[in-house]
Amino acid sequence: MSSARILVVDDDERIAASVRRALTYEGYGVDVAHAGEEGFRMGRAGGYDLVVLDVMMPGMDGFEVCERLRADGDTVAILMLTARSEVPDRVHGLEIGADDYLVKPFAYEELVARVRTLLRRRQPAGDDRLRYADLVMDVEAMEVMRGDRPIELTTLEFNLLEYYLRNPRVVLSRGRTLAAVWGLETETTSNVVDVYVRYLRQKLEAGGEPRLIHTVRGAGYILKEG
Fold first, then answer.
1. Within this chain, do residues 98 and 191 fall inside the same structural domain, yes or no?
2. Are residues 157 and 105 in the same domain?
3. Residue 140 CA to its chain's centroid (Å)
4. Pairing of strands 77-82, 50-54
5. pLDDT tens per residue across span 214-224
6. 96: phi then psi, degrees, rounded to nearest 5
7. Which pTM value belongs to this model?
8. How do 135-138 and 143-146 pair as beta strands?
């Protein structure tokens, strides 16, 4: 499971719940605040890697929350959400310390992609590789090695393997995987996950290596040794 913790601050409970669901599917630990004051208090308490912060809130708005967190010396990554598409508003958010800006309405795939990028930027230098057993993925270069053997993957295969590598030893259901990798929030009967797991197994085991992606009957798949 990803160890990143995310705070979502939005007074719209429906949007906050949707954002929380999308990020939870990715394996992040997510807390929610429905007011600026509450969000600032939770953010100041620390422990978060990223704050998803709505701008338009009654009382303390997102701009003020961002300014006050930065004034306290908090370096947490901040992604601001707003219905304001005007350039001056976006510039203001960035000037007061926000790391990125996403205009509503947005696709949840874009939200997840921006969250991943912000979290990746804040990783220590040299920490851009994912490893499990003899499998190594260079996320930035989009390269995968199994021992000394390079593995060529399509973009979807790469994204699916990255998802498993970020959540090792966790049983991941097909529905959860569809939401995280394909952006489909449904427990569909589609066998697309099974098809791509088969593709990955063929490539990961082409040199006679032991299986790493295992089937958990009735539940999904898990990345583990043995």
1. no
2. no
3. 15
4. parallel
5. 999 999 999 99
6. -90, 0
7. 0.57
8. antiparallel
